[in-house]
Amino acid sequence: MTGGPLFREHGRQVAALCWRPHGPVAEILLITSLNSGRWIIPKGWPEPELTMAESAAREAFEEAGVTGDIQSAALGAYHYLKEKRDGVVPCSVDVFVLKVTRQLNDWPEKGARQMAWLPAEQAAARVAEPGLRQILHAFHKHQASPKARYRAG
Fold it and tell me: What predicted TM-score, i.e. pTM, was given to this entire model?
């Protein structure tokens, strides 16, 4: 048999839904992916020595230069197909909410990606993955509720 398999095992990634208060609304941080340039949230493969939430926070630092307070439980998950040189990997991405408290001047992937801070509804309109769009809509609805647990303050 030549070449590798078209599909590999299902991959599990982590992502950070990075947000900051901006007046009465929450702004979401989007970045561009390295290969396709589509708008995404910071995500990557979990690190074995870290919890899933800590791995998501590390991705936010490495890809966007932000740090803050991360929720220990995932807000939700979405699925997408990750294109690799040897085929496609179906991935499930656990999304953790990170309230940004600091944006650094320097970070590992600075200059490799574009960044944008947007209200949640605008961020949802920019992302391609339907599952991520649903998570952003849910976050927006939750933020708009009077007892929002992610609200600043």
Answer: 0.86
